[in-house]
Design brief:
Blueprint lengths: L1 E3 L1 H11 L13 H11 L2 E2 L12 H7 L4 H9 L9 E5 L3 E5 L7 H14 L1 H6 L3 H12 L4 H11 L10 H13 L4 E6 L2 E5 L7 H5 L4 H16 L1 E3 H7 L4 H13 L3 E6 L6 E4 L11 E3 L10 H8 L20 E6 L2 E11 L4 E9 L5 H18 L4 E8 L1 H10 L4
Parallel strand pairs: 1-8, 13-14
Antiparallel strand pairs: 2-4, 3-4, 5-6, 7-9, 8-9, 10-11, 11-12, 12-13
Helix pairs in contact: 5-9, 8-9, 11-12, 11-13, 12-13, 15-16
């Protein structure tokens, strides 16, 4: 069995995630988005907007400054000239995935349909016409939000069709139908999901493709392996939130088929698997700020194995007990996680605030500071902010030079 050093595993993972790809030299295009999503396979959606919403940041980390509208158009609009590239579904969590991958989750839609209907039995028994009314209203009005549906079903447009449904019940039914694949996200207004019928959003070849569960799961595990480069079975399982039995069977089949190679990684207690097309570059150069939901680090135990970097999100920790801050971004520099910064986009003042900045143990703040200052300034410019304001929390050997190197323009 091949043995990999921890450093080689780290470089392999970074290459798989797109951190060794050349940055675009001109305007970022849909082809660049496709390339980046070809690496990560999906983008997690999250409602937190302290700095920037989670699905936008991984692309900035890999492509540099790009217009957010480019992703919006690729995910939530479609024309003959520019068909939709991505669609929403429950993949890792709520995620944007390539349109073609929606079919690989049909088995999950059936599973969620059974479990969600069971949990919603009282609602469905008390309001037997609500599901039909929601589907009929979406057909007439979609893409449409749950709040609008509640008002319309209640009597404005569809008067006499049903009672005044409770808005929470309407939203629950919308999410049930979304999980079952009977509704999808047609568009978004702000961060509000606007529901539509899948046949108006997805191409017919995607809608009619329905692979057997074991075949679909094997493809998902193979995508996980390509996105991770080298990974344990539990890493592969986590990427698309598969069950242990599903993942273990798929891994065994992929090993038998020669698409995964069992390897030993120095310092890892679990068996690892290397995607046979994975690259292990000799070095990794460049820098990137990573949001808490970046695919490189969202599995915290893997981040600790790869980088020796213990990371926890502290949003729900009371402020006096936070170690690093509310919404902390790790800083990747030349293949290592060398520091972390607490970030907040102050849109009223038009600045990117950095309440705290911290160098990792053993890292040289004098090396980190100029690179981090440039990265923060680039991020501020991408967000349409005028500059960076450095706070006081953290190591003075990093804070003081950061403050000197950044300013409000």
């Amino acid at each position: 069995m091949q043995t990999m050093s921890a450093a080689a595993a780290r470089r392999t993972a970074l290459a798989a995630q797109g951190f060794t790809d050349a940055l675009p030299t001109g305007q970022v295009t849909r082809q660049h988005l496709n390339r980046a999503l070809g690496r990560t396979k999906l983008l997690q959606l999250d409602s937190v907007n302290v700095a920037v919403r989670a699905h936008y940041m991984p692309l900035f980390s890999r492509l540099g400054a790009y217009p957010a509208a480019l992703l919006d158009d690729a995910a939530w609009s479609s024309t003959a000239a520019k068909p939709r590239l991505f669609v929403e579904y429950w993949a890792h969590e709520a995620s944007l995935i390539p349109v073609r991958d929606w079919s690989l989750l049909r088995w999950r839609m059936r599973m969620y349909g059974g479990s969600w209907r069971s949990r919603s039995r009282e609602l469905l028994e008390n309001s037997p016409g609500l599901v039909d009314d929601v589907l009929a209203a979406v057909k007439d009005l979609g893409p449409v939000g749950a709040g609008t549906l509640e008002r319309e079903i209640g009597g404005d447009v569809r008067q006499g069709r049903g009672p005044w449904w409770n808005r929470t019940d309407t939203k629950r039914v919308c999410e049930l139908l979304f999980a079952m694949g009977e509704l999808t996200t047609g568009s978004r207004k702000g961060f509000e999901r606007l529901y539509d019928l899948p046949e108006r959003v997805l191409p017919s070849e995607v809608l009619t493709h329905d692979p057997a569960e074991e075949d679909a799961v094997r493809e998902l595990v193979l995508r996980s392996a390509a996105a991770l480069g080298v990974a344990t079975e539990s890493d592969l399982r986590d990427y698309y939130r598969l069950s242990p039995s599903q993942s273990r069977r798929a891994v065994a089949e992929l090993v038998d088929g020669g698409e995964l190679e069992p390897v030993a990684v120095a310092g890892w207690r679990q068996q690892a698997y290397l995607h046979t097309a994975a690259r292990t570059p000799r070095r990794v150069r460049g820098r990137a700020l990573l949001c808490p939901f970046d695919p490189l680090i969202w599995e915290r135990s893997r981040a600790e194995r790869l980088f020796g970097f213990r990371y926890r999100i502290e949003i729900y920790v009371p402020e006096p007990k936070r170690e690093y801050g509310y919404y902390v971004f790790p800083f990747l520099l030349n293949g290592e996680l060398v520091g972390r910064v607490d970030l907040k986009a102050d849109r009223a003042a038009k600045v990117l605030r950095v309440p705290g900045a911290f160098a990792e143990p053993g890292q040289d703040p004098a090396v980190i500071a100029p690179e981090l200052a440039d990265a923060l300034t680039e991020m501020a410019g991408w967000l349409g902010l005028d500059g960076v304001v450095i706070g006081s929390r953290g190591d003075g050997r990093l804070i003081d030079p950061l403050r000197a190197l950044t300013r409000r323009t």
